[in-house]
Amino acid sequence: MKSNLLSACRSAVVVCDGAMGTQLMLRGFKPGDCGMLWNEERSEDVLAVHAAYHQAGCRLITTNSFGGTRSMLARHGLGDEVANWNRKAAMLARRATGADGWVFGDVGPFGDFLEPLGDMTEENLSEIFREQIDALVEGGADAILVETMSDPSEAATAIRASKAVGSLPVAATFAFQKSGGIFRTMMGTTVSDAIGAALEAGADIVGANCGTDLSLEDYLALAMELRKVAGDAPVLLQPNAGSPKTTPDGIHYDATPEEMAALALGLREAGVSIIGGCCGTSPSHLGAMAAALA
Ligand SMILES: [Zn+2]
């Protein structure tokens, strides 16, 4: 029988999947489109991306629900589809994952600022997250991933909402940038303060994903810093495929599968327990990483 994600990642590195957005773009998704709509209208494409990652060796498959809160869906006039589409997102990931893997119910930022910078109260935000998480769990999520966070209070609200839904493991990751040699979120929060807030709110797994203009060496340094401040909690890292290069036809991430495989080995050495990918990573990157780690 499949073990709990938390105990599994304590005994050996678990390979998580890579980017969804860039994979959907290869299938016709345009920036500004509603990714959640694809769980309904292009479900075969979403399923195909999940299946490609699963086949590449990823045992932890992330639902296509990054913009699945009511506040984000409302931007497309689709706020009433929260329950329906998050449930479908989890069911699609479940189908691709099979019996030997876990479904990571993905929760992204709600899209604005909490009080006092914005109008959102913690109480309302808690309800917004709770609505999404309920549906992800109903659809079959095995764990919740609160990701790409910048504000530790927002992350803490999402973590507490996840914990209120049930006993599923909850992971929380922040997006960092490097300024003056120090990793901070866009809100200026240090690694130690961000992870401290996540752990205090009850996160079982902590780490980082994405980030702004970080090199492969930066991700390794970030992993070491995360490991230092995470206490007993397993660390999760989902690096981009290197730092982005701007060309006339857009932004490209050009780290090769071989380079990402070498990074994955370094991350394991640094004590990271769950390794996946973010922007610019593909099933071929994750395949090389999974093979190196096997
Ligand atoms: Zn990313």
Would you kindly provide a written description of the structure presented here, covering whatever features stand out?
The protein is an alpha/beta fold. It has one domain: TIM Barrel. Helices cover 45% and strands 17% of the residues. It contains 12 helices and 12 strands. It has an 8-stranded parallel β-sheet with strand order 1-12-9-8-5-4-3-2. Strands 6-7 form a two-stranded antiparallel sheet. Helix 4 (43-56) packs parallel to helix 6 (82-97), helix 4 (43-56) runs parallel beside helix 12 and helix 11 crosses helix 12 (283-293). The two termini are 20 Å apart. The protein binds zinc ion. Zinc ion (ZN) binds next to loops.
Low-confidence stretches: none
Number of strands: 12
The geometry reads as globular
| Overall structural domain count | 1
Q: In order across it, which strands form the biggest sheet? A: 1-12-9-8-5-4-3-2
Structural class: alpha/beta
CATH superfamily: Homocysteine-binding-like domain
**Largest β sheet strand count, sense and barrel closure:** 8 strands, parallel
Helix content: 40-55%
CATH classification class: Alpha Beta
